[in-house]
UniProtKB/TrEMBL annotation:
Gene3D superfamilies: Carboxypeptidase-like, regulatory domain, TonB-dependent receptor, beta-barrel domain, TonB-dependent receptor, plug domain. It comes from the Bacteria. This is TonB-dependent receptor. InterPro entries: Beta-barrel_TonB, Beta-barrel_TonB_sf, CarboxyPept-like_regulatory, Plug_dom, Plug_dom_sf, TonB-dep_rcpt-like. Coiled coil: none annotated.
Length: 770
């Protein structure tokens, strides 16, 4: 009997030990990533269910999911997401190495007024990406593109006065930054420091900045980064939406209105349209102590698109028109050498012209037409063929202070016609691989319109660029790895008359570019990405052949026909932490550029009947750019949160062991936002106080026309309120920029030699959505 009891106890404890041992081994996990088959974008909120264990998970904003505490064995997995075909998978789990990528196929459906077709073009990159949208974009309404993008760390502006600004990414601007307007590379006379982008920010529903070298995807002009200005997707069914924006500003007494309307067809599913128009008028800008003469502007813009989308086919036509007249600070054009020396020494104009809306010479008149036709066709569930054609016509006229009838004639009159063609194939396989390969071409013809009476600053030219590329991406759970290779060839032919002598040149350039990047989600809160890429840029025609007075810049520019192509290698690393109360992004980069081209002040002056001007020349040297961007926010309480963002950049001339001109100085922007009203309400109701700190640029070149200006600190105040009027929304905004009317000069403003920057500016912004 004792033997039986002992055996029974042994069996009992053996089974118990075996059960406990087996239970302890139920610590396995299933990891995975959920992506759109259409565009490789991550899906947030997909539902994953394990039948045998009756457990599940929901994918996060990066598409990742994990199901824990599973035993070894066979499992049936189901993935569901609204508007997508369900996935069922059978798997064997015997270790913690299981990690799989699933791609959900979208299907067209109509559910309570929501229609899904899914033809969005995602930003496919492992380098640092930041976007302006929602409330942040709403706050920026009424500003030009350069000023709007200053809200992103690592992005500043290179300006000529207060009306003209160009975005700067990690110290790069103009022909090193590519701007895409609704998918078409914007091609104007962007080589000029005072040539602002010909684009109306009101067309944008989202503005995205890619900070890495993106020449493989987009071509040579993307060596410094890319800015994507994307309108809202076209509607695919009848659902009218109208937006009205009204903006008024005290400084310059400016007014800005924009109206947009979008709707779809009730009879033809998938057919939709969108139209938008805006107008702007401003007078003389006011520095804290005086008005700046002839600094007004006027602007009139329009855009419209029509598209059709089905499960297999998509086609869209788009047109935009941009027209602006910009006054150039009259005191930047001086009469003689003594006047030029005295105004630079004085640091401000000698006269105060008062306020007026009148725009006289010197001024710019610019018009830009852009038309595009885009189409895609799904060859299969995994393969998609894309076609895009763009046409642009740009006319730039710059008027100088001249005598008599000549005052009505432009001193610079340029017409630029650009054709672009893109043909590429996307694939998103149901396994871990996705990518694209294709070809693109750009053809340009630039002409000097005769009759100016002035020797053209740049010659007439024809340019043809052909590129072929391939990009492949591997995504598995928290890991993404991608790489790409591209080859470009470019030919340029120029011609112009100089003192009745015809001068011609035929040039050709070609080069490879490549990149490799990775993104890894270390944990649900921490993401790390790294991108290493080569890039190149052939010298632009102005850098090669400029020879004379650049009227808008109030400077004489001298080119060098023997300049080589720039070649660079850039390494960008970014780590992001997204916690419950804390969000942190830190981006570090290093960029070595061989034969970097820059515009350098010579110290000489040029005297003519039209005045006295400083002389600049295009030079070339090896460069090393490096720096850090950071952005952080913290929620102190349910009502109070704070933010800080800033950038540090160094740009060294490694050949001469000195520094380049016109590189942004160190800066930081920090602020506090207090939320009013109900804590459960989703409507915006907040007050923001912020402070911009900008250091003096101590790393100056060996020679400059005047020392770098002192450091400065600006305070800004803002209030946003959203109201509901029935089913409509009313957004109200009040902003006070330079709250204490501080006198300051920005180093990156080319007119800092002649005047202070803008004083206090009070803005009222109204947006009505119905």
């Amino acid at each position: 009997m004792k033997t039986i009891k002992a055996a029974a106890l042994t069996l009992f404890f053996g089974l118990l030990f075996h059960s406990l041992t087996f239970a302890q081994k139920c610590d396995l996990s299933i990891r995975g990533k959920i992506l759109h088959l259409e565009n490789n974008d991550p899906i947030e909120g997909a539902y994953i269910w394990i039948v045998e264990s009756a457990t599940g998970a929901v994918s996060d904003e990066n598409g990742n999911f994990i199901v824990k505490n599973l035993c070894a064995g066979n499992y049936s997995l189901t993935i569901q997401y609204l508007g997508h075909k369900e996935i069922k998978d059978t798997l064997t789990l015997n270790s913690n190495n299981f990690n799989k990528t699933y791609r959900l196929e979208e299907e067209s459906l109509d559910l309570s007024g929501v229609e899904i077709h899914g033809h969005k073009l995602a930003v496919q990159t492992t380098t640092a990406v930041t976007a302006l949208y929602g409330d942040a974009l709403l706050e920026a309404r009424g500003e030009n593109l350069g000023e709007s993008l200053k809200r992103i760390s690592g992005v500043t502006t290179f300006s000529t006065g207060n009306s003209i600004s160009k975005p700067v990414i990690h110290g790069m601007h103009s022909n090193r930054i590519m701007i895409l307007n609704n998918g078409i590379r914007l091609e104007g006379q962007q080589w000029g420091a005072e040539h602002a982008p010909e684009i109306d920010p009101f067309v944008a529903d989202e503005i995205t900045v890619i900070k890495g070298a993106e020449t493989v995807r987009y071509g040579p002009e993307a060596m410094g980064g890319v800015i994507l200005v994307n309108p809202a997707p076209l509607p695919t069914k009848k659902n009218p939406k109208t937006n009205i924006y009204l903006t008024g500003a005290s400084n310059g007494r400016s007014g800005n209105i924009s109206v947009s309307h979008a709707n779809g067809s009730d009879k033809i599913k998938g057919l939709g349209y969108q139209v938008q128009a805006s107008a702007k008028r401003a007078g003389n800008i006011h520095s804290p102590d005086y008005y700046q003469g002839n600094t007004g502007l006027s602007e009139l813009n329009f855009s419209g698109s029509l598209g059709y989308s089905s499960t297999k086919l998509g086609i869209e036509g788009y047109y935009s028109y941009f027209n602006t007249t910009l006054g150039i600070l009259r005191d930047s054009h001086t009469g003689n050498l003594d006047d030029l020396i005295n105004i630079i020494k004085n640091g401000r104009p000698f006269s105060d012209p008062g306020f007026t809306y009148e725009i006289i010479n010197p001024k710019q008149v610019v018009s830009h037409h852009l038309a595009k036709l885009k189409s895609h066709y799904h060859l299969s569930d995994s393969w998609k063929l894309n076609f895009q054609y763009g046409f642009q016509a740009n006319n730039r006229q710059e008027f100088d202070k001249r005598r008599g009838d000549l005052n009505a004639k432009p001193s610079l009159d340029l017409e630029l016609f650009t054709n672009t063609l893109d043909l590429f194939v996307d694939h998103s396989l149901k396994n871990e691989w996705s990518g694209s390969f294709g070809i693109n071409a750009i053809q340009q013809a630039n002409s000097n319109v005769p009759g100016t009476g002035v020797t053209p600053l740049i010659p007439n030219y024809d340019m043809l660029n052909l590129g072929i590329y391939a990009i492949e991406k591997y995504s598995k759970g928290p890991l993404e790895v991608e790489g790409g290779l591209r080859f470009d060839t470019r030919s340029v032919s120029t011609a112009r008359y100089v003192q009745s002598e015809l001068q011609t040149a035929d040039l050709s350039y070609n080069n490879f570019s490549a990149f490799i990047g990775t993104l890894y989600q270390v944990s649900p809160k921490i993401t790390f990405n790294s991108n290493l890429g080569t890039a190149w840029r052939p010298p632009n025609v102005n850098e090669l052949f400029s020879e004379g007075l650049h009227h808008g810049a109030a400077a004489v520019e001298i080119g060098d026909a023997d300049l080589n192509s720039e070649k660079s290698i850039k390494w960008v690393n970014e780590i992001e932490y997204d916690g419950t109360k804390t969000h942190l992004e830190i981006t570090g980069y290093a960029n070595h550029i061989k034969d970097y081209i820059y515009l350098n002040p010579t110290g000489d002056t040029f005297v003519s009947l039209r005045g006295t001007f400083n002389v600049y020349e295009y030079l070339q040297a090896n460069a090393f750019f490096y720096g850090v961007d950071f952005s952080a926010s913290y929620e102190f309480s349910n009502r109070l949160n704070g933010y800080a963002k800033g950038s540090i950049i160094r740009a060294k001339n490694t050949e001469e062991d000195n520094y380049f001109p016109f590189i942004p100085s160190d800066r930081m922007d920090w602020g506090l936002a207090f939320k009013f009203g109900s804590l459960t309400s989703t409507k915006t109701n907040k007050l923001t106080l912020s402070n911009m700190l900008v250091a003096r640029q101590k790393r100056e070149p060996d020679f400059d026309l005047a020392p770098a200006p002192p450091a400065y600190a600006l305070f800004n105040l803002g209030y946003q309120r959203q109201l509901e009027i029935g089913k409509d929304k009313l957004n109200l905004g009040l902003q006070v920029q330079n709250l204490f009317n501080t006198s300051y000069k920005e180093y990156m403003n080319r007119f800092r030699y002649f005047t202070d920057d803008m004083g206090r500016n009070i803005l009222l912004k109204i947006n009505y959505q119905f």
